[in-house]
Amino acid sequence: EAKRLGGNRFRVFEPSYRTVADSRRDLIRDLREAVRDQYFTLQYQPVVNAQTRQLVGFEALARWTHPVLGPISPDRFIRLAEEAGLMHELGSSLLRQACLTAVRWPEPLWVSVNISVEQLYHRNFIATLKNNLEQTMLPPSRLQLEVTETIFMEADATTYGVLQSLQALGVDVVLDDFGKGYSSLGYLRFFPFSKIKLDASFVRDMLSDPRSAAIVSSVIALAVDLGVAVTAEGVETTEYFERLRDKGCTETQGYLFGRPMKQQNASCLVEMLTRKESFIMDSASTALATN
Ligand code: C2E
Ligand code: MG
Ligand code: MG
Ligand code: MG
């Protein structure tokens, strides 16, 4: 077939081939521009004390709306930014945004920021973080940094040192997506994380699958024995919440108490709860604040 088309054959195959390569290259170019123009925003998802139902803080989640392609998932653009060497700059600017937002919330509400591998191992990471805390005047105790076990794939002699510097600064280091990978248990021995975030996949299956339920119970028991907090991710209904609470889970996060929301809506929610003076959350207050 290609031969029959003779000299034109590349015109037949080239376009789709070029489209893939081009679109990736274009996306990285757009990403670079967006980083330069600080076009990324954060949304904030409430984290709730599982025993008291009180709001304790928010996880900051990055968002990017491409002018033509629309919203791009953070899983995708974070990976691209890492590959393009843009993650230190992007991460620093997001960290700054998060600190500026959180410093306006009443004590002791905290913000939790995801940190990727490239960012953590950048030679200026700790200095940039210190700077950020000083300039925004956010007390380090109100900042938490979430890392996944992927940081251990590139672990070297400096890994422990970086994590320790964070802890020395008074910033909590949280192990995200616990159980999703292969050897999370070993990492708990390597470093004293302040908190474990139980991956949403276990939570999702815990009501239908006894094995997942057993794993959830064990991780919670493990956290209790280690003396660290444990947050369940992906809590979407009251049934999940109550089960996790009864198992002794420390915190929950999920659509039940609120989706990731714009900064203004998060502040609005905080204001409403401050007026109530108890900080006890229900889905209604979230709905009110975000409408
Ligand atoms: P993550 O840190 O594990 O964040 C939790 C993800 O679960 C978020 O997805 C959140 O929107 C989603 N989620 C929360 N509650 C529920 C629920 O009840 N049900 C369901 N189905 N999903 C829920 P999102 O925002 O798409 O972020 C995906 C991942 O991208 C994050 O996973 C994190 O690894 C990464 N990410 C997001 N923002 C940043 C960032 O600023 N820096 C870095 N390095 N990574 C980020
Ligand atoms: Mg996270
Ligand atoms: Mg997670
Ligand atoms: Mg994740």
Automatic annotation (TrEMBL):
Coiled coil: none annotated. Keywords: Membrane, Transmembrane, Transmembrane helix. Residues 24-274 form the EAL domain. It comes from the Bacteria. Signal peptide: none annotated. This is GGDEF-domain containing protein. It comes from Acetobacter oeni. The chain holds residues 453 to 743 of 745 of the full protein.
